Each structure stands twice: as structure tokens, then as C-alpha cells.
Amino acid sequence: MPLKVGISVGGYRAEGGGGWVFMDLLLKALATYPTNHQFIVLDNAASREQRDGKHGSLRYSPALNPLRRAKIQILAGGRKVIPASLRRGIDFFRATNRDRLPLKAAIKAAKPDIFWFMHAPGFPLDVPYIATVWDLEHRKQPYLPEASYTGFTWNAREQAYRAVLPRASFVVTGTETGKQEIVRFYGVDEPRVRVIPMPAPPAQGEKTPSRDAAVLRKFGLAGDFILYPAQFFPHKNHYNLLRALDILRREHGIRINLVLTGTDRGNRHYVHEAIDQLGLSELVFDLGFIPRDDLRALYQNALALVFVSLMGPDNVPPLEAFVWGCPAIVGNIPGAKDQLGDAALLCRPTDPTDIAAKIKELITNDARRHQLIAAGAAVAAKRTPEAYIEKIIEILDEFEPICRAWPPDYERETWTPQHNIPWNGRSRV
User: Fold this and answer.
1) Where are the beta strands (DSSP E) in 253-320?
2) Could you tell me which CATH class the domain 4-200+384-403 is placed in?
């Protein structure tokens, strides 16, 4: 019998970077994937077309917070002033239970056989669930601001993973390195941790030739450039990349443009200060958040992707580079080799001299660039969203005969020992 599978996408949107790309790719693949299992995406921000349309085995359902619904009804009724008690309630829910309580209520109403948190970390449920882990960097790099910033402190992260992972029916991560970290840090039974490599986006159209004049004009670029698409978090390590750019200019006489894209997550001002201090203003182009089509054009015309994030290894940009014909220089963090194999040129991300040397290698060695492009294309061809969904379906097929050992409406039974009799009827709670 097919399973009813609930899905949470965690409220991610395009501005959210790689997390949104990951889930968007999988939802699109799932909508057309041939399977008998039924999937319900619980997403408040789903469009009317998503909720009303037919998407194969996939359908969308809202999970509105009751207080948010009340606020909407009040405003729709013409009241401009929301009662103070309701406003305080809304603020409380936003601060402490913004997503969890309405999602729990939606899950209870949907009655799935198993639930999939497509995002991390999720939260523990009474129904079987699949947890997704992209990284556990708060454990490995607790000094990073992202591991302890206000709103999701180190303790909150740790409590979430400690509650979610041991109780999960299955835990999915992208690399063998990530799997061993989950087992080591949280004592999860190893067979329940499944490695499914991060998906690459599907190729769209023909790759444009390098240094396409129209693309360069659109973004005000002149000459070759390297690309770093990353939100402005501290762990994205823009500073050391800027120092590498400075080394190339001062020590090797190489002036290469750097194009940055992504939303500000509190570190953009610091990065811009570093640009000014190093005298790199004429070489660095900060385009902010840009549409996917524009980003693809930049990949296709860049000399190289230089991805020096300190967190990972499940990162989307190197796979985007593989698909769109851009050679990749990537920080050699634990698991990077698992994800990328020999298709990327690995560098020490905290060593500007090494970053600069890798950039220089691709500038001066055209054969090496083409070798990396070919190797990246071979990796991307195997890492399709459909290949990822296929592995998820295998997990569901494996679980189906297990969960059929109890009825869909099963509730906990009450055990009342009387006179040494351990079982007393079948009363429900």
C-alpha cells in the first residue's frame, strides 16, 4: 500500500540561498516522479496555483497559525486596531512557536504515515519522521557567530538536534563524513542514517561562451571575473577571499574582478569595509540578491567559482558550477572530497595565499580549467534531483511494510495493572 507522506519546507524562500534551491529542486522533481506514495507539502506560503493545481503525487496544504488566521480575519473585516491581548498572543507565538505549533496541528490533521523534514533541524514528532542534516558545524566550530547568534543560540541548536536525530526513523545527509558525525555526536543507530548526495540543478539550455559581451555589459563588468555566490554570513569567509585577491594583485600582478551575490546576513558592512581598506573597490562587484537566470549567466561566463565557505560540505554552489560549465575552487573542509571528488580544485579556506595560488592556477592553465569542467559535468550528471528522490522513495518502500504493522488511526493504549494482570481492556486515551 502507498504511504501518505507529509513534507515541511520550513518557510524557505529564494532569498534563503542554498537551502531554498535544495528544496525547490526536490519539490519540482517530486511533482513528476512516478510513485504510488502520496505527498502533502505543508507550506503557508504556497501559491494559489500550487494549492489548487495538480502536481502528480504532490499536493500543497497551508498550516496557518490560529492567531495569524484570527489577525487576517480581523483585518479583512475592516478593523484596523487589533486587541492588545491578541497582539501579545501573536507576538508570543512569533517569538517562541512561530512555525512549530501550527505545523504540529497541520500534521495531526493530515495524519501522515511518515513525515519528512526537508529542512534542518525540524523537531521531534509522535509520528515516524525523516530528518535532514546539512551540517553540524555548531559542534565543530562553536566559535562562529552563526553557531550562537541571538534567536537560535548554540544551546537551542544542540537541544534541537539532540531531540530530533535519535528519535528520527531515518536521518538523511549528503556525505559519508556527515553520516559519521551524526553517529558520533548524537549516537544515532548507524543503519538509520542514509547518505544521499546533494542534488545538482538540471541543465537549462546551451552554455554560453566565456566572456559573453552582453552578460558583461548587463552587470557592468569588463574582463575576466571570479564568482562567489554566498549570503553575507561570517562563515562565508569573504574576508580571506578578499585578501587572496589583494595577494594576486600585489605579488603576481594579476588584476581579476570578483563578483559577489547574495543577501545580507549581518556581515556585508564588514566585508565592504575590508574592500575599502584593501583598495579593491574597482575589482569587487556586489550585486546583491539576483534572479536565478542572471546567476546562471554569471556562472557560464565566470573564469571560476571560488567557494570558500567554512561550513559544509553539503553546499549547492559547487554543484551549480558543475552543471553550468564553470570550474570550481572550493574550501577543503571535512567532507568536501566526499561531495565533489576530483571535480573541484580544493584550497585551504583560511589561507589567502593558498586561495590566491589556486586562482592563479586556473588563470594560467587553460587545460586544467577544461579538465575540471569535464569532471564537474560528469558528477552533475549523476547528482540529479530525480536521483535524490529515487533514494527517498527507496526509504519509503523499505518503511512501508513496517508501518503497516499498525492501523493508520492507531493511538496509544492504556495499560492498567490490576491484581498482577498487566493488560486491562483496550481503552483509548
Assistant:
1) 257-261, 284-286, 304-307
2) alpha beta
